[in-house]
Write a structure and sequence with these properties.
The complex is a heterodimer of chains A (331) and B (323). Chain A has 331 residues and is an alpha/beta fold. Chain A is 46% helix and 17% strand. Chain A folds into 2 domains: 30-139 and 279-310, Response regulator (Rossmann fold, 3-Layer(aba) Sandwich); 142-276, Response regulator (Rossmann fold, 3-Layer(aba) Sandwich), CATH 3.40.50.2300. Chain A has a 6-stranded parallel beta sheet with strand order 2-1-3-4-5-11, sandwiched between helices. In chain A, helix 3 links the parallel strand 1 (41-45) and strand 2 (71-74). In chain A, helix 3 crosses helix 11 and helix 8 runs parallel beside helix 9 (230-242). The longest helix of chain A is centred in the first third of the chain and has 22 residues, at 2-23. Chain B is built from 13 helices and 4 strands. Classes of the chains: A alpha/beta (331), B mainly alpha (323).
């Protein structure tokens, strides 16, 4: 009996739903969403424009948000930390709806970002966070990058000399220090691995090459190198190639996964592993955060969350497909 | 009786010799032929830049914009090839850009009489900014297949010697010839020693000053090409680095006085060797970055202090001052 009533009820429902669809059903949340985004200003302060990561984030956010009427305001401190702090300070008084901040170090902007959120501006930090935890963080987990790169190098060293070298970035950069922590975590588990050199090359390809050349001359039996950024490790790889050790010395590095800077160098054999924090994915995450925060109406600083980027390990197997082109993202 | 006095060149050479001996004795793996070649190779680009700087400093000027000349024209070559132009076309475009840049510098300093420090500070920013906004898509300009073969300028070996060292040697010979064997070279020394006297004796000092800056920009561009070939890319961000101070250091440390008219290619070689030995030894020792800076600072201070003890400032320098 009950079964028969159910079937009848379902039949009724099946008849009524298409009838409603023909009239059209108002989705009640899309209009407030559009209103929440239209005309809002997103201020973007990277450490500098003109490199694959920051150009990629910007292009990705624009593509995703401009159709909704979001306006972008960009401040380019061009690697100058003071200029960046001034830009953030002046932006606070201009009251954009959202600030997307790429920190040069952990401390400099921390207080300013807190002030911005107190003034009601949502702050999203990208890839390099500060000591202040704001509404959202989108970016790579540097410790994981250090760990996975080092694990790969340690694995490649099995049965070999167990001698490795580390090419760090700039000492003041949090990204470099966090990555180093990841390296240390893995090395603590492998006491047999000997670090013959651990030096900072200042994100500079020429310095990385000079250091690696000297290290390779002293330790021709080196089995692996952990580099901290592919833009710099192009120099590391050049030194390995010149020493005729490509394929013998395992070079692991990380970067934004742009085709020329990552995949083509993996294909050529310069890098054996490049951990990519895929920039288009990060740009999509940033855009999603901005959409969510603006439409939520939450008070700035009242919710805090993170979206760590899922890393893509680029090796010879996936080097044809794993990368992105800046020109495509800008289309 | 002639009092025995050391020149700064000799002081620095002595510091270099002591460092070199200490490393040779106490540092395993320092005094090997391979490491010596690496040492030289690592400072070859710095040495070439030192030669460029030496020319203007001998002529009583300074060129702060040298790193822009190193970064932008070679970056343009890589970018143009990436965009599908042929390598010769791109090289010619870069050379024209370097020459034009040298002419602007020279004109500002010789004819508009802007002090070289300020003129080149501004033009360097201008060229680097032009590169960033108009010429390059990204600040690291990557190698592209169209450049293949060109990397031999900065990689590999010729007769067992790494190519950058040979490039440095060629640059040394050319600059030494220019300074010591041509009339223009003699004029540069004369202008550096006393610009007013040089002009009074009929030396065409303004065109010679322009020439200095053009040659300097061209050598800077050459150094950039060697550097790009060596690391398979042009990190144009190098303009923001402290490389220019290292270049001035090589020149001044080698004993080319900033008051002009003195020194030559040998001084640049000595200065470069000292820096190279320090960097190489500290890398082998795996000294931390901060420690390296400290040691560099102390050695340089020692060299400068010893010099001012042995060679007190004379009346002439006191009146016109150093730069």
């Amino acid at each position: 009996m009950i079964g028969r009533v159910m079937i009848a009820a379902l039949g009724m429902a099946a008849m009524t739903v298409p009838a409603l669809a023909q009239q059209g059903l108002d989705e009640p949340f899309q209009k407030p969403f559009k209103e929440a985004l239209a005309g809002k200003v997103v201020a973007y302060v990277p450490v500098a424009m003109n490199f694959d990561l920051t150009e990629g984030w910007y292009a990705g956010m624009k593509k995703e948000l401009e159709p909704y009427g979001v306006k972008f305001e960009i401040r380019d401190p061009n690697w100058n930390t003071n200029a960046g702090a001034q830009a953030v300070t002046s932006l606070i008084s201009e009251k954009p709806a959202v600030m997307v901040i790429h920190n040069p170090d952990v401390q400099t902007y921390a207080k300013l970002l807190q002030r911005a959120e107190n003034e009601g501006i949502y702050v999203i930090q990208i890839n390099m966070g500060s000591a202040y935890r704001s509404s959202a963080f989108v970016g790579a987990n540097w410790i994981e990058i250090g760990e996975r790169d080092t694990e790969a190098v340690v694995k490649a060293c099995q049965g070999k000399s167990n001698k490795i070298a580390i090419v760090q970035g700039a000492l003041s950069a949090a990204a470099s220090a966090y990555t180093l922590k990841g390296v240390e975590n893995v090395l603590a588990k492998h006491p047999d691995i000997k670090v013959v050199s651990s030096q900072a090359a200042d994100w500079d390809a020429a310095k990385a090459k000079a250091i690696t050349q000297t290290v390779l001359k002293q330790n021709p039996d080196l089995c692996g190198i952990v580099g901290f950024w592919d833009g710099m490790d192009i120099g590391t790889a050049a030194a390995v190639k010149e020493a005729g050790l490509t394929g013998k010395v395992f070079v692991a590095t990380s970067g934004g996964g742009e085709r020329k800077g990552a995949c083509e160098l993996v294909k050529s054999g310069a890098f054996d592993l490049n951990m990519s924090y895929d920039v288009p994915t990060q740009a999509a995450d940033l855009s999603a955060m901005i959409k969510w925060l603006l439409s939520s109406g939450a008070k700035a600083g009242s919710v805090k969350g993170s979206a760590y980027t899922t890393l893509i390990p680029i090796s010879k197997e996936n080097a044809d497909t794993a990368c992105w082109n800046l020109s495509d993202l800008k289309k | 009786m002639k009092r025995f006095r050391f020149s700064q060149q000799e002081v620095v050479f002595a510091v270099f010799a002591v460092l070199f001996l200490t490393f040779s004795i106490f540092l395993r793996g320092f005094l090997t032929p391979e490491n010596m070649l690496t040492l030289l190779q690592n400072v070859a680009v710095l040495g070439i830049l030192g030669l460029a700087m030496a020319i203007v400093v001998i002529g009583r000027g300074i060129d702060i914009s040298l790193i822009a000349a190193l970064a932008v024209p070679p970056g343009l070559v890589l970018q143009m090839v990436q965009n599908g132009h042929s390598l010769p076309t791109s090289l010619i475009a870069a050379l024209l850009l370097a020459i034009a840049f040298g002419l602007v510098n020279g004109w500002l300093i010789a004819y508009a009489e802007v002090p070289s420090l300020f003129a080149t500070l501004a033009t360097g920013l201008l060229l680097a900014g032009l590169g960033q906004t108009a010429l390059f898509q990204l600040d690291v300009v990557q190698w592209s297949p169209g450049m293949d073969g060109f990397e031999r300028l900065g990689q590999g070996v010729i007769l067992g010697i790494p190519t950058p060292i040979i490039m440095f040697a060629i640059a040394c010979v050319i600059v030494a010839f220019l300074l010591r064997r041509t009339r223009w070279g003699a004029y540069i020394y004369a202008i550096g020693d006393n610009p007013y006297a040089a002009r009074a004796t009929g030396i065409p000092s303004r065109p010679i000053v322009v020439l200095q800056y053009v040659v300097t920009a061209l050598i800077g561009c050459f150094a950039g090409l060697v550097m790009a070939a060596s690391v398979n890319s042009m990190p144009t961000r190098v303009f923001n680095s402290t490389l220019i101070y290292d270049v001035i250091l090589v020149v001044v440390l080698g004993g080319i006085g900033l008051s002009g008219g003195r020194g030559g290619v040998l001084n640049v070689i000595i200065g470069t060797l000292l820096i190279g030995t320090m960097l190489n030894g500290m890398t082998i020792l795996d000294i931390s970055y901060a420690g390296q800076n400290l040691i560099k600072g102390v050695v340089l201070l020692l060299a400068v202090i010893t010099d001012s003890f042995l060679n007190p400032r004379n009346e002439e320098t006191a009146q016109q001052g150093d730069i």
